[in-house]
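Q: Please design a sequence for this.
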């Protein structure tokens, strides 16, 4: 689940829980709203956990830049 889907679930659940005053036979709309909000929050936590670890890990084997090293023979080594 992506972050957008999670936020959408939370928003739809909040609308059903707090703004809708209708009743449907056999279905409690408030409970459906709370379930959607819970699923959205749980999905958001899981998405952040998975994507947070994924973005922190960077592995590079190649050096950042190549340098040429030359040995100077006109200077005596330190004592």
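A: Design:
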């Amino acid at each position: 689940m992506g972050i957008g889907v999670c936020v959408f679930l939370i928003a739809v659940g909040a609308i059903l829980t707090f703004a809708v005053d209708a009743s449907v036979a056999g279905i409690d709309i408030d409970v459906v709203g709370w379930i959607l909000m819970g699923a959205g929050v749980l999905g958001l936590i899981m998405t952040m956990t998975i994507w947070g670890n994924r973005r922190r890990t960077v592995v590079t084997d190649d050096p950042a830049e190549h340098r040429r090293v030359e040995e100077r023979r006109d200077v005596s080594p330190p004592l």
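Q: Thanks. Anything notable?
A: Residues 13 and 33 are 4 Å apart (CA to CA). The two ends are 66 Å apart (CA to CA).
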